[in-house]
Specification:
heterodimer; A: 679 residues; mainly alpha; two-stranded antiparallel ribbon; 2 strands; 70% helix; globular; B: 100 residues; 3 helices; 0% strand; elongated
């Protein structure tokens, strides 16, 4: 077989699916090394294919190709099962397969002592399959298939420890909240069918491009806003972000892969993919930008007071996704995708490093019980530091370039609103720096707050128990953690950490702006995808000087965040507690996460439950459904009784009935026909 | 030439007689004869229509019906003898094993 891209592209999703089938059906009986070998092989091969594609496509001007078969075809409407590869898809594929493969390696070490090992890897491969379908899809419907599929994989993996009620509930919450977003996505697709008669990206976008007079048209705005509803669900934006912090109930590699690096960025990808629709609708763009900025600062503020190390990172993810939305909202799609790329590196790294910390402490997730781990787990410390420098925007690290690109593009966008959004983004950058360095100091510096020999305190979602003898899924076996010494993780977990740390450092160099002597390769790489023939690029109002000044301002703000964290958590530990007491109301608002969960519970969930329990269960279920069931049962019983009296065993009575029935049939055939035909 | 309707009326009468005999008679042999009567009533219709349309197929059907009836008579009489040997009776009302 020749290496034909259109053939090879099919293997990118199909190989992980094969891995899922093998591990999902036979994994229970296979030895663990074989399970992990299968899972790794079937994720390494797609990564190799993507690398090959990338190499083969380099230098070719028209990168886009499609491969597909007919799928749904009815009169006047057709959707095909088509994969398309262009520059944007290539970047997404590289993130999904590359970071995905690294996280698979890490999982081999992290999950080594867990029950349901095969189940975990089968689900991970299933996720890789659906995520590849999502980014390869050439039409909205196929994208939606991947979209729902990753939601399913996410649900299964959040609820991986399904014996724990909180994990099972978190899985349900993620699924149900995502359904609300999917509802918007579905409505958007219906409207696209109504207005365009097609769901193909190429044909829909070409139609929009051919009609410049549609700019700002009402129906395009509605479609774009409904797509935003879908994206807000998947990418955890206000008001649908509530599922992501709870999703931390899943194993840490899952948080890294699905709830940081790949799946949650699907919303950003979808908006970038449908950018033609958003370009044509300034209202939708403004909504996306405001939503992103609001989410960024909102989540960052909550992240500042969290104690669970994974929840800090979860709110940080929501906040960074807000940045990406902000970038898309101001039309800087390339900057958004750039941040998606760098974020995939450093957030996956941060989660994996946090997992390594949790692993070292035998399941401890509360930062109040950490500290002084710098010398105990040196490699974890250094790699996590790289991730923290990247997210806070320390110059030369990946996040510095992507975040400043977003802030710069926001600042230079036309109108007064972007200036305000820029300020929000800047404040968020300071908050990001604060909570990340707070995590850094509390975890790695200062006095150890854990008791090494004694029983380790189980907290929250702490389920990863490391023990030589026997590990269990449920977190209520403290015996296993007893006598557990703080230790560095095995090399199989450290290797992905080191690789991701290197990527978190150099990953931003693909987008060095011209102001700093670079060429911003990623923007020119993505230019063919985001070219907007309908509205030619407005001349940028910015200059190199302005860009440098803005970068300097954001570095200063980030340094201020670092300095505050340094003062409060390193220089004088306990300052934060005093301040929290002094500013009790503000602290209470933040630590209760603005009571959003409680508001949703009281105003949406409780009324809904009252409706279902009061009306649907009591009246409809018991009255109508059960009642009609019982009534039909009674009726059948009565008829049966009537019939039973006729089963006499008397042949002549049977024959009589037979003759009567035949006579009735003949009568109907002769007389009834005339009645039916000529009423 | 006798009109076809005459044959049909005769056939209907024979068939009705067969049904009546089947329903009224208690002796198994009589019931059996009634069934043969019905079969031959149908045979008569076949032949009458075959004659009317000038087609041979109706008559061929009659042959098949006769062959099946002969086989059925052989099996039926065997069953009747078997029943008589066990029950010493030929009354159909005594044979009610299929009562639920």
């Amino acid at each position: 077989m020749t290496l034909d891209p259109t053939t090879l592209v099919w293997f990118i999703p199909l190989l992980p699916f094969a891995g899922f089938l093998i591990n999902g059906t036979l994994g229970r009986k296979l030895p663990r090394p074989l399970v992990s070998a299968i899972a790794l092989l079937f994720t390494a091969l797609p990564a190799a294919i993507v690398a090959w594609l990338w190499n083969a496509m380099r230098g070719t001007d028209s990168l886009l190709f499609t491969a597909g078969v007919p799928w749904i075809s009815i009169t006047g409407f057709q959707v095909d099962f088509v994969f398309a590869v262009d520059h944007l898809t290539l970047i997404m594929l590289a993130v999904v397969t590359g970071v995905g493969f690294l996280i698979h390696i890490y999982s081999v070490g992290y999950m080594a002592h867990e029950e349901g090992y095969w189940r975990f890897f089968a689900y991970l491969n299933l996720f890789m399959f659906f995520m590849s379908v999502l980014v390869l899809a050439e039409n909205f419907l196929l994208l939606f298939v991947g979209w729902e599929g990753v939601g399913l994989a996410s649900y299964l993996l959040i609820g991986f420890y399904f014996k724990k009620t909180s994990a099972a509930n978190a899985g349900k919450k993620a699924f149900i909240v995502n359904r609300i977003g999917d509802f918007g996505f579905l409505l958007a697709m219906f409207l696209l069918i109504v207005h365009f008669g097609s769901l193909s990206f190429v044909s829909v976008f070409a139609t929009v491009a051919q009609h410049p007079e549609w700019h700002g048209a009402h129906f395009l705005t509605v479609i774009a806003l409904l797509l935003v509803v879908g994206a807000a669900g998947k990418s955890a934006q206000i008001p649908l972000y509530v599922w992501l912090p709870d999703a931390m109930e899943g194993p840490t590699p899952v948080s890294a892969l699905i709830h940081a690096a790949t799946m949650v960025t699907a919303g950003v990808y979808m908006i970038a993919r449908a950018h033609v629709l958003f370009d044509a609708s300034p209202t939708a763009c403004a909504v996306v930008a405001c939503l992103g900025a609001a989410t960024a600062i909102f989540a960052a503020s909550i992240g500042m007071v969290q104690h669970d190390i994974k929840r800090v990172l979860a709110y940080s993810t929501i906040s960074q996704l807000g940045y990406m939305f902000l970038a898309c909202g101001v039309g800087a799609y390339a900057a958004g995708i750039f941040h998606l790329l760098t974020h995939a590196f450093f957030k996956a790294l941060l989660f994996l490093a946090a997992g390594s910390v949790i692993h070292a402490l035998g399941g401890e997730q509360d930062m109040r019980n950490m500290g002084g781990l710098r010398t105990r787990t040196p490699i974890t410390f250094w790699t996590m530091s790289a991730g923290i420098f990247a997210i806070t925007g320390v110059p030369l690290f990946a996040g510095f370039f992507s975040k400043d690109e977003i802030l710069y593009r926001t600042f230079t966008a036309p109108g007064p609103l972007p200036k305000l959004l820029w300020l929000v983004g800047l404040v968020t950058a300071g908050m990001t720096s604060f909570y990340m360095f707070r995590l850094w100091f509390k975890t790695f510096f200062g006095e150890p707050h854990f008791d090494e020999k004694a029983e380790l305190h189980e907290h929250g979602a702490a389920v990863h128990l490391h023990s030589g003898t026997h590990a269990v899924m449920v977190a209520d076996h403290d015996d296993n953690a007893r006598g557990h010494a703080v230790h560095e993780s095995p090399w199989i977990m450290l290797l992905p950490l080191v690789l991701l740390a290197i990527l978190s450092f150099i990953g931003g160099w693909v987008g060095v702006p011209a102001a700093l002597g670079g060429h911003n390769e990623i923007e020119s790489f993505l230019a063919p995808v985001f070219a907007n023939p309908a509205a030619p690029e407005a001349p940028s109002t910015g200059s190199h000087g302005l860009e440098l000044a803005l970068a300097a301002v954001s570095v200063l703000v980030a340094f201020y965040g670092f300095y505050v964290a340094y003062l409060w958590y390193y220089k004088k530990p306990g300052t934060a507690a005093v301040l929290a007491e002094r500013a009790e109301p503000a602290y209470a608002i933040l630590s209760h996460k603005y009571w959003v969960d409680e508001i949703y519970a009281n105003f949406i969930v409780t009324p809904l439950l009252m409706f279902t329990r009061g009306f649907l269960e009591l009246i409809f279920e018991r009255g109508v459904v059960n009642g009609s069931g019982k009534a039909s049962g009674t009726a059948v019983r009565g008829l049966a009784w009537l019939e039973r009296t006729q089963i006499s065993g008397n042949i002549r009575s049977y024959a009589g009935w037979l003759a009567l029935g035949a006579a009735a049939v003949i009568a109907i055939m002769i007389f009834g026909r005339a009645v039916w035909m000529h009423p | 030439m006798v009109p076809t309707a005459y044959y049909l009326v005769l056939s209907a009468m024979l068939f009705s007689l067969g049904i009546a005999g089947f329903l009224i008679k208690r002796n198994v042999i009589s019931v059996f004869i009634s069934i043969e009567l019905m079969l031959n009533a149908v045979n008569l219709t076949f032949v009458a229509f075959a004659h009317m349309w000038g087609q041979i197929s109706g008559q061929i059907f009659v042959f098949f019906v006769m062959v099946v009836a002969a086989a059925e008579a052989a099996v039926g009489l065997a069953i009747i003898i078997a029943i008589f040997r066990t029950r010493r009776s030929l009354n159909v009302d005594d044979i009610d094993l299929m009562k639920s």
